[in-house]
Structures are given as structure tokens and as C-alpha cells.
Automatic annotation (TrEMBL):
Official protein name in the record: Thymidylate kinase
Name of the gene encoding the protein in the UniProt record: tmk
Matching InterPro entries: P-loop_NTPase, Thymidylate_kin-like_dom, Thymidylate_kinase
Keyword Kinase: yes
Residues the entry annotates as binding ATP: G12, L13, E14, G15, A16, G17, K18, S19
GO molecular function: ATP binding; dTMP kinase activity
EC number(s) stated in the UniProt entry for this protein: 2.7.4.9
Matches recorded under CDD domains: TMPK
SUPFAM superfamilies per the UniProt record, alphabetical: P-loop containing nucleoside triphosphate hydrolases (SSF52540)
Class of this enzyme: transferase
Span of domain Thymidylate kinase-like: 10-201
Source lineage: Bacteria, Pseudomonadati, Pseudomonadota, Gammaproteobacteria, Vibrionales
Length: 214
């Protein structure tokens, strides 16, 4: 019997190493014989969602995006991505390897922007319906380390310019909420050097793969 395609999400603060990890996990999946894998990133991943991403990151002189607008924009982009990429791929047996998903919204707009988490989860139910990841890999990094990596990488965007207090709230919400997920979670200490982070990802991903029998 053909095994069901899995939906894997990578989460964490800016500079946690999500993009780096996704490239590495792609190679690990190949090693496991999984060749049908689609990357996604949020917000983004479709024509409309990438437009929303641009809007989301942009700074407008004299007008701030409200916290509610942020949530609604993110979920608009997510709805487009789910219906035009994630669901069709999974139905065709293509694995999804996602850079951010619902947990980011709970951590950033819930923890960071103080929108009640239950309200976010209610929009989430409307947008995602029965769609649930099979696995979340959470790269836990301190905001100081993550932001210093992000600063080296490129100019900071609208969200990356928030203060350390904001990111501390985002991180603590991430850490609380991974215990509330209805699916498997791999927790990685991403403060460590890259070789060690990769080793830990490999060991835990292979163990998960064995436990779920592919
Ligand atoms: N464990 C690590 N130690 C040191 N540098 C890292 C580590 N993981 C990633 N980096 C570097 O930090 C920067 C941010 O990593 P990236 O994968 O883009 O993070 P994210 O996608 O989570 O924002 C990149 O330049 C990357 O090479
Ligand atoms: Mg990235």
C-alpha cells in the first residue's frame, strides 16, 4: 500500500535556522526514499499569497497595520496556500515541507500582539478545516541569538525590527503552545552550532519516521 504523504512544518523565531533546516530535511527525506516533496513558506507560496507577503512585510509611512489586519492577512494568505497547494499536493501523494504555519500566528499575533489565542484558533478552524500537520519541528532559539543571525543575513523587515520583549513573548508562547498541538512535535535546541543542530534533526526525524512507519 502506498504510504500517505505527510505534512511537516518547521517553526521558530527569525534566525532560528528554519530555511537552513528545510534544505537539510529535504536531503534527509531523499535519503529515506521520499522524492515527492513540495516546499512552502508562509505567508506566501501562491501568486496571491506572495502579494500578501509583500504587503505584510512592507512599512507604510503614517499608517500601521493593526494586529487584527495582521491576523486576517496571514489567514487570507494561508487559505490560498492550503486550497491551491497544500491540499492538492497531499491528495496526490506529495509531501509538504512548510516554513511556518498556524503555530507562527499563535506565537506572533497571539503572544506577540496580544490577540486572544482562542480567537485565533477559531479563525484557524474556519480556514484550515480538518487540515492538520503530521509533524512540527520547533527550532527553539533565544531572541538574542536568532536576531543576531538574522541581522548578519539581511536588512531587517517590519517584524524583525520589533524589540526583544516582543520576541521573548513570541518565544514563550511557542514553548507553551507546542504542548497543546494535536500532532507530533520535535523540539530542537537551535542555539547550538549548526553541525549539532543538524545531527539532532537527523536523529529525531529518523526516529519519528521509524515510529510512524513512513
Ligand atoms: N545553528 C546555527 N548556528 C549558526 N548560524 C546558523 C545556525 N542556523 C542557521 N544559521 C545561519 O543563520 C542565518 C539565519 O538562518 P535561516 O535558516 O535563514 O533562519 P530562519 O529561516 O529561521 O530565519 C543564516 O545565515 C544561517 O546560515
Ligand atoms: Mg527563513
Amino acid at each position: 500500500m502506498k504510504n500517505k504523504a505527510k505534512f511537516i512544518v518547521v517553526e521558530g523565531l527569525e534566525g532560528a535556522g528554519k530555511s537552513t533546516a528545510i534544505n537539510y530535511i529535504y536531503d534527509l527525506l531523499l535519503e529515506l526514499g521520499i522524492t515527492n516533496v513540495q516546499h512552502t513558506r508562509e505567508p506566501g507560496g501562491t501568486l496571491i499569497s506572495e502579494e500578501i507577503r509583500r504587503l505584510f512585510k512592507k512599512e507604510f509611512e503614517g499608517e500601521n497595520l493593526t494586529a487584527i489586519s495582521e491576523v486576517l492577512l496571514i489567514f487570507s494568505a494561508r487559505s490560498q496556500l492550503i486550497e491551491s497547494v497544500i491540499r492538492p499536493c497531499l491528495n496526490e501523494g506529495i509531501w509538504i515541507l512548510a516554513d511556518r504555519h498556524n503555530l507562527s500566528t499563535i506565537a506572533y499575533q497571539g503572544g506577540g500582539r496580544n490577540i486572544p489565542i482562542q480567537e485565533i484558533k477559531s479563525i484557524q478552524r474556519m480556514v484550515c478545516k480538518n487540515l492538520e500537520p503530521d509533524l512540527t519541528i520547533f527550532l527553539d532559539v533565544s531572541p538574542e541569538i536568532g536576531l543576531s543571525r538574522a541581522r548578519l543575513r539581511s536588512k531587517l523587515d517590519r517584524i524583525e525590527k520589533e524589540d526583544i520583549k516582543f520576541f521573548n513573548k513570541v518565544r514563550s508562547t511557542y514553548r507553551n503552545e507546542i504542548n497543546e498541538l494535536n500532532h507530533d512535535v520535535i523540539l530542537i535546541d537551535s542555539n547550538k552550532e549548526l553541525d549539532i543542530v543538524k545531527q539532532e534533526i537527523k536523529q529525531k526525524l529518523f526516529q519519528w519516521f521509524k515510529n510512524t512507519k513512513g
